[in-house]
Amino acid sequence: MKSICAVRGVSAAGIKEGKFGLALIRASGTAAGVFTSNKVRAAPVEVMVDRMRRGRLDAVVVNSGCANAYTGRRGIRDAVEMCAIAAESLELDPDAVGVASTGVIGRYLNLPLIRDQCERIAPLLARNGDAEDAAARAIMTTDTFPKHALVETESFSVGGITKGSGMIAPNMGTMLAFIYTDAEVEAPVLHDILRQAARRSFNRVVVDGDTSTNDVALCTATGAAGKVDRGELARAVEDVCRNLAVQIARDGEGATKLLEVTVRGAADEDSAVAVARTIVASPLVKTAIYGEDPNWGRVIAAAGRSGADFDPYAVSLRVGGVPLVVRGEIVADLGAAKTAMRGDTVSFDLDLAAGDGEATAWGCDLTERYVEINGKYTT
Amino acid sequence: MKSICAVRGVSAAGIKEGKFGLALIRASGTAAGVFTSNKVRAAPVEVMVDRMRRGRLDAVVVNSGCANAYTGRRGIRDAVEMCAIAAESLELDPDAVGVASTGVIGRYLNLPLIRDQCERIAPLLARNGDAEDAAARAIMTTDTFPKHALVETESFSVGGITKGSGMIAPNMGTMLAFIYTDAEVEAPVLHDILRQAARRSFNRVVVDGDTSTNDVALCTATGAAGKVDRGELARAVEDVCRNLAVQIARDGEGATKLLEVTVRGAADEDSAVAVARTIVASPLVKTAIYGEDPNWGRVIAAAGRSGADFDPYAVSLRVGGVPLVVRGEIVADLGAAKTAMRGDTVSFDLDLAAGDGEATAWGCDLTERYVEINGKYTT
Fold this sequence. Notes:
2 copies of one chain form a homodimer. Chain A is an alpha+beta fold. Chain A has 2 domains: 4-250, L-amino peptidase D-ALA esterase/amidase; 258-375, Roll (Ubiquitin-like (UB roll)), CATH 3.10.20.340. Chain A has helices at residues 43-51, 72-90, 111-121, 129-138, 187-199, 230-250, 269-281, 283-290, 297-304, 334-340, 368-375; strands spanning 11-17, 20-35, 56-66, 97-104, 147-152, 157-163, 176-184, 216-227, 258-266, 316-319, 322-326, 329-330, 345-351, 357-364. In chain A, β7, α5 (187-199) and β8 form a beta-alpha-beta unit. The radius of gyration of chain A is 21 Å and the shape is globular. The two termini of chain A are 38 Å apart. At the A-B interface, α8, α9 and α11 of A face α8, α9 and α11 of B.
C-alpha cells in the first residue's frame, strides 16, 4: 500500500466509467479542510465549509466529470443529496459524510448515476493497494497518473491521494486532495497543521494560474495510533502534501518537465513566495523550459514584476547548479545552461540578497499539448 | 499617410536587417513618457526617465533585436552613446534625443551596427507614408504587421506607431509606442494626458501577463497647430492609444482572434479593470477562445479569482450578444454561443450588478503557435 490504505482505519473503493468516476473513502475521525479562495465556490465546497464546523467525518464521497459549480441552490441540494446517497450505501449519518466534485462548471450532477455507482462500489470497500488505487483513479480528470503519497514514522502514518493536472484541471476541474493519518489529534489542531502544510505545498504549485472553484484538501485523523508529537505530525503532513503537490506540477496539463524554483535571500518568506510563484507561472519562462532555451532574462524579468523589493544588480541566479548571474554580473555559459535544462526536472535557484526569506514553488513547462487539451473541452 | 507623418513637424526613417532594425523619428516639441512598472528596468528606460524631466525632445532613436536590459552601468553608457550617435547624424543636441530598445535581455548593444544603420538612414528622413511605414517596420520583433493610428480633427492631428506582440514580445521584447501631435501643449499637461490614455489603453491589453522590462510610450507635441482644447486633445490621444493597443492584442504572439472583455456594474472602475484583465489573461479562457469552445464557466471562475467583490448569482454574461447567464440563471444555448465565437473577434460582456464601474480589456487567444514562438528564442 502506498497511500491512504496504509493508514489504520481507512478503507476505499472507486470506479471510473468514461469521464464519470466515483470514489468512496471510509475513515472515522477528527477532520479538517482547506478550500478554494475563489469568490465563486462550487456547491460541494459550500456544503463542506459548513459541515467541517463539526470537525469530524466518517467518510468522503467524490465524483469526477461534473464540478457541481455555479449551480445555485439546486447545486447545494444536489451536494447534500450526494452525501445522503453515500451515507445510505455505507449505513452512516449523512451529516458525517464529506463531499467533493471535479469536472465541468455550470452543469448539474447526474444523481441517478451517482446513486448507481455508489451502490455498486460500497460493497467493494477494502483496505489494500488495489482499493486505494481505484479511489485515486476514480477522481482523475486530465491527470495522466494516479497520485499517492505516504510517510510512515515509528508511531504513526500519514497517507494521501490527490488529483489535479494543475491548480486547475481542464474545466476548473481542480485540485482535490484527501489525506489520512492514524494519529490522534483534536480537529482545531489538525486544521492548523493542514492549513500550514497546504500553504507550503499546494499553494506553491502553479500550472496555469487559474484558481479553481472546487479546490479542496481534506485531512482525517482516525486516532488508531494514539497521541503523537505535534511537530512530528505537522512535518509528516507537510511532507505528504508537498509530495502530492509536486506530482500535480509534474502532471500539469501537457507538461513534459517539472519546474522547481527556489528563491533565497528575500526580505521575508511572503516575498520569496511571491517571486517564486511569479516565475513558475510566467508563460515566457514556461515556454523557454519546454524549448530548453536558457533564456534567463525571462526569470529575472518575472522576479521584477512580482512586487517584491530587491536590487536587480545584487541577485545571483543558477539553473541546475550552473551559474547564470553572480551578484548582478552576467556569467552565463549558455551551452552549459542548455545542458542543465535537459531531463525531466529544471531547477532555478535565485538569491535576491535582500534578507532571509526562502521559499520553493513548483510548476511545469507550457506546451502545444496544453493548448490542445484546453481548446476543446465542453463541446 | 496613416500615422506619425500626418502630424505637422514629424519626419521618419527606418531600416530592418534580419533581427536588427533601427528607426529615427525627428520632431521637436514638448514631450512626455510613461514607462514599465517592472522593477527590472532596461538601460534606455532608466536614461529616458531621467531625460524626460526636461519635457522636450527633438528626435527619438529606437533599435530592435537587443533590449539593452539587465546590462548594468555599461548598458546605461551604451544607451547614452546611442543618443549621441543619432544626435551626430541629425546634427542635434544629444540631450534632446530620446532612446528605446527592444529584443533579447542580458545582451549588450552592437554600437558599431547602430552607428552604421544611423548614418545610412539619417539622409532618408522624410515626411510621407513610406517613411512612417519604414519606421514602424524597423521596430517590429515578432509582430506580424506594422501598427499605425491617426486621429485628425479640424484643428490638430494625433498619430502614433507601436510595436509589441503582447504586453510582451518574444524576449520581453516589449511594447514601444511613439505618439505625435501638432497641438501646442505644456509638457506636464501632455504627461497627464498620456498617462491617463495609457492607463485606459496599453495598460488594458494582456497577451501573456508578463510585464516587460522595456515598455515605453512617448508622446511629442510639435505645436505646429497652435493651442487646442485640452479635453479634445485628451480624447484624440486616448483614441490613438486605444487603436494601437487593440492592434497589439490582435497581433499577440500566435494569436488567431482578438478577445474583447467589457465589464459593467462593478463596484468601481478599478474593480472593473481587475475583472476584465483577469479574464483576458486567463490561459483557460484564451484556449477556449482558440477552440471556439463556449466554456463560459471559465469566464465566471476567472472573475471569481480577480479579487473584485460581487455576488456570483447576480451576474449576467453574454458572448457576442448571445446571453449565457442572466442574473445568475444559466440560459446558455451552447450552439448559438459557439457560433458567436466564430470570426476574428470574440467579445464578452459581463455585468456584475454591483455598482457603476465599467472597463474594457483586450487580449487574444492562446495557440500552439505561441508555444512554438517562445520555446526557442535565444539559441
